Methylmalonyl Co-A mutase-associated GTPase MeaB
Amino acid sequence: MDKPKAHKTALHEVDGIDQPESISKASIEHVTRLRKKQPTAQELVNGILNGDKTALSRAITLVESTNPSHLEKANDVINQCLPHADKSVRIGITGVPGVGKSTFIEAFGKHLTSLGRKVAVLAVDPSSSLSHGSILGDKTRMEELVKDENAYIRPSASGDTLGGVARKTREAIILCEACGFDTIIIETVGVGQSETAVHSMVDFFLLLKIAGAGDELQGIKRGIMEMADLIVINKADGDNIKKAKLAKTEFNRALHLFPPKNSGWQPKVTTCSAITHDGVADVWETINEYLKLTQENGFFGFRRSEQNSYWLTETINEQLKNNFYTREDIAALLEQNKKAVQNNELSPFAAAQVLLEKYFK
Ligand SMILES: Nc1nc2c(ncn2[C@@H]2O[C@H](COP(=O)(O)OP(=O)(O)OP(=O)(O)O)[C@@H](O)[C@H]2O)c(=O)[nH]1
Ligand SMILES: [Mg+2]
């Protein structure tokens, strides 16, 4: 093959004839200086530890980057932040679209900052990578919280897989905590597997509901009920108050049918209005009761270390899988073997064996 020709710029078109130096040295230096403006890992860490939200945002962007060259720097920042994290309460909030999550988080977040807490709101919403979800709506619904100096709101990381989005969110939690945020709220939309992912990165899981037509338990996934530490029936205002109270009774009865939780906590049901703020303060009190109980009985720390090892294996699984399926030779052989399996010429196990052997060779 021919050797590639030396790169020619538009300014040096003809070999042997030098063009006058038309790019000034000063402007080259200027551009280089600008490029160097990308903060180093150390600068990011220093900024974060000083409570600088701009540094925090930049670091989260770095963590979310899919550019492999950013990975090392991102890991460096996270590792340096790790010893300063872990001193917080992590609260997961889920509920179907329209239940009032954003409005609730605005009211709840403002209540927390009024108590002197520093609140970070993150979101796990894999669907938002396509539609950019409700970010626009949230800007108006969390108007007050967005402006609050002691609050930080970050829209969902985008990504193809829930695992990827979840991992980035978990790392963002660490960065927020190192930046001094002591209350982390992770919001997720009540679809698919995202609740499970959020449940495995928080201390307390809150399910937001609204009172329905009397058949409250219809259409609610058992698994989500089981994960909830608190069910909050929102929009308990105006004509809705009575219905909300009835719903509370029904949920309470249902919750008692579940086996007791390892935490020793009996899940609770409460009503609130994110608009009038009635009952919002009670939610925080309930969370405090939970924290007191689980810190005393040791479950709080136990759960966090369980979660750490869960995410270790989860990340390995995710990356192995990605690596396997994106390798070209594997993909080709997989296609081939798939046909053989479909035609009963090869057993699925034998085919898998062949593929794995090729992969690990
Ligand atoms: N009456 C009443 N309306 C509420 C309450 N909370 C939220 N709403 C209204 O319900 C609608 C949906 O609220 P959002 O906060 O956007 O709901 P969401 O769960 O964040 O929705 P998605 O972001 O689409 O998942 C809005 O029109 C709110 O004004 C409440 O406590 N009472
Ligand atoms: Mg919302």
In short: Residues 1-5, 129-134 have pLDDT under 50 and may be disordered. The two ends are 30 Å apart (CA to CA).
